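User: Can you predict the 3D structure of Cutinase? Sequence below.
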Amino acid sequence: MHSTTLLAIFLSSGIALTGTSASSLSKIKRKETLLNEFLADLLKYLPAIDEPLVDATSVITDLDSVLADLTGANTTENQLIDGSSCDEYTLIFARGTAEPGNMGVLVGPPLVWALQDIVGTDGLTIQGVNNYSASVEGYLEGGDPDGSDNMASLISEAYSSCPDTKLIVGGYSQGCQIVHNAISELDATTAAWIDKVVLFGDPDDGEAMSNVDSSNVYTVCNSKDDICDDGDIITVWHLIYAENVTAAAEWATS
Ligand SMILES: *[C@@H]1O[C@H](CO)[C@@H](O)[C@H](O)[C@H]1NC(C)=O
Ligand SMILES: *[C@@H]1O[C@H](CO)[C@@H](O)[C@H](O)[C@H]1NC(C)=O
Ligand SMILES: *[C@@H]1O[C@H](CO)[C@@H](O)[C@H](O)[C@H]1NC(C)=O
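Assistant: Sure. Here are the predicted C-alpha cells for Cutinase:
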C-alpha cells in the first residue's frame, strides 16, 4: 500500500476512533504522563501493514513525522556530549531504520518520557547515537558500522566523564543491532559498568552480549514481529513498542 494512502487511513481511523480533538491534543502535549498512553493508543489504530523493510521505510518516515508533530517529541538529544551535567541516570539510545534525528519517534522519546516520569527531568541525561544513517543497507549488514562505533565511543565517554551515573543503553530495531555491535567493541571493564540494556524489536533477539550479564538485559519482542526473527517484513507488531516503554523504564530504574 502506498504510504500516503496508509497515512490517510491511519489519520482518519486513529484520530476519529480515539476521539481526539485539536484542543484535547494541546492538553495532551502539556501532560507528558499522558503522552505515552496517547501514543500507544494511536498506534493501536494503525491499519494492517505487511511490507518488506525496503518498501516500508517511507511509511515509517511519514508516520514518525506525523507522530513527532502531534506529540512534540524531541527527535534529537545530545545532552551527554554537550557536557552540561552528570545526572543519576544516563540514556544512550539508537533509533530504528528510517527514523529521524538521533532518537527517532516510535520508541526513543516515549522511553525518555517514561524514565522522566520516574526519575524526573533532572535525573536523566539523554543522548542519541550520531553518525548513523539508519538506512536499510545498514540493517541488512547487521547494523550500521559508523553508528555502532559512535555508540561505543559515547558509552566510553559516559564512563570517563560520568562514572557515577547509572547508564541505560537502549535500542529499537536496527538500533538493537547497534547496541550489540557497540558492546562487542568495548573493553570488559566499560561493558560491565553498563547498568541496564533495554531492547525493543531486536533482530539479534536472545544473542548474548559479552561482559554484560543477561540479568541486566530487558528485551521486548512481540511474538508476531518478524524483525525479532531476523526477518525483513515490517508489520504493525514492529511499530507499537511504545506500549512497552513504561514496564521497561520501571525495570531499568528498579
Ligand atoms: C524537548 O526538549 C526541551 C529542551 O530540553 C524540553 O524543555 C522539552 O520538555 C522537551 N519536550 C518533550 C516533549 O520532551
Ligand atoms: C563518523 O564516521 C567517520 C567514518 O567512519 C569517522 O571518521 C568519524 O570519526 C565519525 N565521527 C563521529 C563523531 O563519530
Ligand atoms: C507490550 O505491551 C502490550 C500492552 O500492554 C502487551 O500486551 C504485550 O504483551 C507487551 N509485549 C511484550 C513483549 O512484553
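The two ends are 42 Å apart (CA to CA). Residues 53-71 form the longest helix (19 residues).
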